[in-house]
Fold this sequence. Notes:
Elements: H1 2-21, H2 24-35, H3 45-65, H4 77-101, H5 109-139, E1 145-150, H6 154-165, E2 171-177, E3 189-191, H7 196-203, E4 207-210, H8 220-230, E5 234-236, E6 249-253, E7 256-260, H9 269-289, H10 291-304, E8 310-316, E9 322-328, H11 351-358, H12 366-372, E10 376-378, H13 385-394, E11 407-409, H14 411-414, H15 423-435, H16 439-451
Parallel strand pairs: 1-2, 1-4, 2-3, 4-5, 10-11
Antiparallel strand pairs: 6-7, 8-9
Helix pairs in contact: 2-5, 3-4, 4-5, 7-8, 9-12, 10-11
Amino acid sequence: MIKENQKLFNSLNVITDGLLIYPMLPLAFWLRFYVLPGGIISISLQRYLVIDIFFTISQLFLYAAFGMYQSFRRTRLLRELPKLGGVSLLNLLLMMSWLFIVRESDYSRQTLFIFFVLYVCAVSVKRIILRKGLRYMRSKGYNLKHVIIVGSGRLAQKYLEEIHRDSELGYHAVGYIARERNEDLNLPYLGGFDEMETLLDQKRPDEVISAVGMSDYELTPRIINACEKAGSKLSIIPVYADYMSSRPQFDDLNGLPLLNLRYIPLDNWANAFCKRAMDIIGSILILVLSSPVMLICAIGVKLSSPGPIIFKQQRIGLNKKPFTMYKFRSMRVNNRQDVGWSSKVDDRKTKFGSFIRKYSLDEFPQFWNVLKGDMSLVGPRPEVPYYVELFREEVPLYMVKHQVRPGITGWAQVNGFRGDTSIEGRIDHDIYYIEHWTFWFDVKILWMTVFGGKFKNEEVMVGSEAGHGT
């Protein structure tokens, strides 16, 4: 039943998107030429309506191609809306390029831009309302996806916790099948593996989740066969799920599937090119615009205490290669700068050093590191070699962060994992960023860095001049 409902829902989703997009161009035409001043009509509304047909069709096609009509259950709204805006912008650029190629450049760019804003807002609002409606229905017990869990160990417990934690997804666990009852699993026990085929025929779940541990892993072929006989959709949580990316990638070796445990979008040369281009342009602009501020900082550091203006320290960067990171010196010269910890109250800091660290002005020389290619505007914060060697033994997946360039700011930092905070929490956020990188994700982090409070509170640094800042 859930499959039929999903097909109907997807069809209605496509139709309503089309009904929202198409009227927005004539509305944009009216706003531009009859409401806003200075409008001179050079192309009739009828001609706009013709290209509107092709634009609407191509937009729906691109939405489908980029997975915008897949089930909402596994996609968060905060991920969906930026993706929707990006795909819409791509379609607008394609249409404008096509108009230029066919020498139809007389169409009003202002009208097209207003059209873009209107329909993106309309489709976004529709999806927000739709999500809220589905959430309400699921809270009342409708539109639920009924699943049976196979297994009763740690993976089954983790899956159960996730679907309970995020009830908006609309999953309802009917019960579990396992060798024996597990009292710690707060779920009805349906029976053993010998009864699996009968249970699947009786319960007719929308999906079966195989969450067996290593001790039952040899039963996987049996689980697959039982689901195929019952016609039940099967999803498998691998026993090595803790070591996998949330978005693994498969390669094909003459028909033999190869699973890449960790997919990194920045391994794609086009993605890497876009990120590096943003780093170069952004660092040059900031270095030029901030040069008067940096001159004042340099003078202040020099007058505040004896020693160099620029603090230099070895950090570990891309591919575990060391590099020299630069900052304005905010402390008196000391002999603990490679392994020490600094705090908000630290007698080694100068008064001027406290000021520039409070507003993150000491970070500005790092934009030179970005321009050189040692760092990026956004990425995991780099650490001193001492702490890299310490954490690599203590923190699972710690070294994964070195598969991308370190950054001046990052997803962990804008979520509060700065200074003397959980290393595990920081690494979890760093890995999420590495595996889910997009150009717009970087833009979001930069926006949160500037407007989300990073410059309002002084960080407690790990490995700052005492180790100068993670």
